[in-house]
Amino acid sequence: MRVAMPELWETGASWLGRLRFFDAYAYLKRKHIGSQVAITTYHRVPFSRQNWSIRSQVTLRSFENQIQYLRQNFAILSLDELRQALQRKSLPKRAVVITFDDGYRDNYLYAFPILKKYSIPAMFFLTTGHIGVGKPFWQDRVGYLIHHAMVGHLELDELGSYTIRSAFDRSRATFMIRDNLERLPEQRKNCLIEKLADVCRADIPDDFGSQLVLSWAEVEEMHQDGAEFGAHSVTHPFLTDLPSAQARWEIQQSKEDIERRLGEEVRFFSYPMGQCSSEIVRIVKECGFAGAVTTDWSWISPRSDPYRLGRIPMTESQSKSAALLSGFVGDLGIKSRWSKN
Question: N or C: fewer beta carbons within 10 Å in the chain?
């Protein structure tokens, strides 16, 4: 019988977790570098798993279990508290910061009430061009179309051909098409997604975006209840692929969008897809941000650059999340096998 690779990794992580291997690894690593401070990353927190969604998902029940685990085993800091600790060159022995990327509505519906219940600080990074306008992310459009396709095969010009007769086929095709679309020019990308809709013979509901992405009223309500917000660009591009002036607009405008709505300075930035360069870091500094986060799977040390702070992705699996938090997976450099929920 063929066993899928993700299942092998899950089994291995579970077995090592029962042996407390990850706790031991984290302890030894702390002894070596002096602290264990991690910034965690979440994207979607739906009530139950949605198979069409490309974005990483941690469902409501798993999210609450993870929050309970984190508050029992770590000091939980705000991102600004971490920045201040970095300025002092004195970090807590074992701490985490909780962040969310993009601005999904399930953050408001399910994640934030749990954070309020346990009085946990968190930073929500918003892609402002999608907030309050009912505009879904293109990745979600692709995932929804493929998983609701009325055909068993796709032919998509330079994107290739795919058989999508099973749930596994559809998931595989979704991620491959996503990867092929990611760095295409915006106009060509949108053209191919429209063609995908025709080929799939699937329709996206009119309220798809408004049900999926936060409104400004929800952002303001969360802010009044203590949520902190950072900028994540306007349109979620690869900033390193853009001309300098356009990258600056994405960074500065997203900051101004949130400040205008909330009447409060936005101090932190999250690089879309975690991509940055010396030029992009310079622009972020010039736009007045106090720090920025990437998607590098690394712990924070007293020597960490506040404008290149690594983060640890959280997954639905408690075993995999423990492995990631321990630093073990990032140190081995096996991101591609662990990055899918």
Answer: N
Report the CATH superfamily, name and number, of domain 5-134+214-338: Glycoside hydrolase/deacetylase (3.20.20.370)
Q: What are the residue boundaries of the structural domains of the chain, listed by start?
A: 5-134+214-338, 138-200
Give the residues across from 57 on adjacent strands.
44
Task: State how far Cα 78 lies from the chain centre.
Answer: 17
Backbone angles phi, psi at 188, to 5 degrees: -65, -40
DSSP 48-94: S--TT--S-B--HHHHHHHHHHHHHHSEEE-HHHHHHHHHHT---SE
Cα–Cα distances in Å, from 312 out to 12, 66, 74, 129, 226? 19, 13, 14, 26, 23
pLDDT digits (tens, 9 = 90+) for 280-293: 999 999 999 999 99
Task: Find out whether 315 and 40 touch, Cβ atoms under 8 Å.
Answer: no
Does this model's pTM top 0.70? My answer is yes
- Note the pLDDT tens digit of each residue in 103-130: 999 999 999 999 999 999 999 999 999 9
Separation of alpha carbons 232 and 128, rounded Å: 7
